[in-house]
Amino acid sequence: MAIKWEKIITVLDAKKGNVSITLTRIDDTDPANVKTLNTCSVSDALINTPELRQQVLLELKRQYQSQKQKVIDDAAIAGAFDAEIVADVKMWGV
Predict the structure, then answer these.
(1) Domain regions of the chain by residue span
(2) How far apart are CA 74 and CA 83, in angstroms?
(3) What mean pLDDT value characterizes the chain?
(4) Distance between terminal CA atoms of the chain?
(5) Angle at Cα 76 formed by Cα 73 and Cα 78, nearest 5°?
(6) Contacts (Cβ under 8 Å, ≥6 apart) of 91
(7) Which pLDDT tens digit goes with each residue over 26-64?
(8) Cα–Cα distance between 16 and 49 in angstroms, integer?
């Protein structure tokens, strides 16, 4: 298979158009080792108009992009420190 999004939409109040939504990005390339890559959710959302649905989609996208940026930022910080560690360890004579 491949990387894909799984979604769970739970209706909280049908009359009001109120739902809970969870999106999970998974990598199921190896069925024996399925990995969760991202999870975004809105626990209480009204989706009874196109504008409200768009707001929910924008919030899910914002969460995804924020998680993606954190991975990039963390890698930059860890990568720089990793290079320092390698240089220091070489000086220890190990």
Answers:
(1) 3-91
(2) 14
(3) 93
(4) 43
(5) 105
(6) none
(7) 999 998 999 999 999 999 999 999 999 999 999 999 999
(8) 11
Mean local confidence (pLDDT), 78-83: 84
In this prediction, residue 94 carries a pLDDT of 59
Tokens for 91, please give them. 């000086």
Over the range 28-59, which residues count as b (16 or more CB within 10 Å of their CB) and which as e? eeeeeeeeeeeebebeebbbeeeeeeeeeeee
DSSP letter at 48 equals: S
Residues 6+ apart with CB under 8 A from 60: 21, 23, 40, 41, 42
User: In this structure, is the dihedral angle defined by the CA atoms of residues 68, 69, 72 and 73, taken in order, positive or negative?
Assistant: negative
Tokens of 63: 């969460």
Structure tokens at 70: 């954190």
- H/E run at residue 85: helix 50-91
